[in-house]
Q: What sequence folds into this?
């Protein structure tokens, strides 16, 4: 994790918006894995990012997984295809129930043609953003909120999930040569069938569709805003988390 450059970045293009988001997403994932004890805490080191100390896994395979997952998110973000990204923590087998969902809503991000990813949003020179300070405050909030969440069982697993925009032409990036697979129906939001001119809602599955979205308890984390960058973040504690607790 590279050291933070004290010079605040300028968010003047959509490419810059996406780069800032994926930079923050990487740090947030490491932070969540540490704070929720998904891996032993001694397996993390203290790094520096956003001009503050942050946690980073020292395990090469964990770092490579996060790097590849964030790169896959970035590829879809550059298509303006995503409405949200979620880190989902699952219970250990055999249930693998979704217990917590950390949602990064990018629904308010601008949508631009692929030919204008590097086109400035304005002809004027934009001011330096305060996003590093907002990122720093959000990471601190994530750490603080973890102590107020109900504890997780040992041996939990996690995955990164994306939610597509309902815009016409946005298709799920599924196929033999893609890093994505379909999420379980309980974590899928019903989308309008873009291929259906009637605009009727496409029901993909059964009554389980989207059952685990929203959770039993939602905790807001922070809204981050700076120019074209507008991100909302919250935590959902799933119903299965409370069902599996003893007593």
A:
């Amino acid at each position: 994790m590279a050291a933070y450059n004290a010079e605040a970045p300028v968010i003047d293009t959509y490419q810059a918006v996406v780069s800032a988001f994926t930079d923050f997403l990487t740090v947030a994932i490491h932070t969540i894995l540490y704070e929720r004890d998904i891996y032993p805490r001694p397996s993390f080191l203290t790094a520096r990012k956003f001009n503050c100390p942050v946690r980073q896994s020292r395990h090469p395979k964990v770092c490579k997984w996060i790097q590849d997952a964030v790169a896959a998110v970035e590829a879809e973000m550059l298509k303006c295809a995503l409405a949200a990204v979620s880190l989902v923590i699952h219970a250990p087998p055999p249930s693998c129930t979704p217990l917590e969902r950390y949602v990064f809503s990018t629904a308010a991000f601008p949508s631009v043609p692929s030919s204008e990813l590097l086109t400035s949003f304005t002809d004027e020179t934009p001011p330096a953003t305060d996003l590093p300070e907002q990122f720093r405050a959000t990471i601190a909030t994530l750490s603080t909120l973890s102590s107020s969440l109900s504890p997780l069982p040992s041996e939990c697993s996690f995955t990164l999930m994306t939610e597509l925009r309902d815009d016409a032409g946005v298709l799920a990036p599924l196929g033999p040569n893609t890093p994505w697979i379909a999420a379980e129906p309980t974590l899928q939001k019903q989308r309008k069938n873009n291929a259906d001119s009637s605009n009727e809602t496409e029901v993909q599955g059964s009554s389980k569709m989207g059952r685990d979205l929203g959770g039993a308890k939602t905790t807001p984390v922070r809204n981050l805003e700076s120019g074209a960058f507008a991100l909302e973040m919250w935590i959902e504690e799933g119903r299965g988390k409370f069902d599996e607790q003893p007593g």
In short: The radius of gyration is 18 Å. The chain has four helices and seven strands. Residues 14-35 form the longest helix (22 residues).
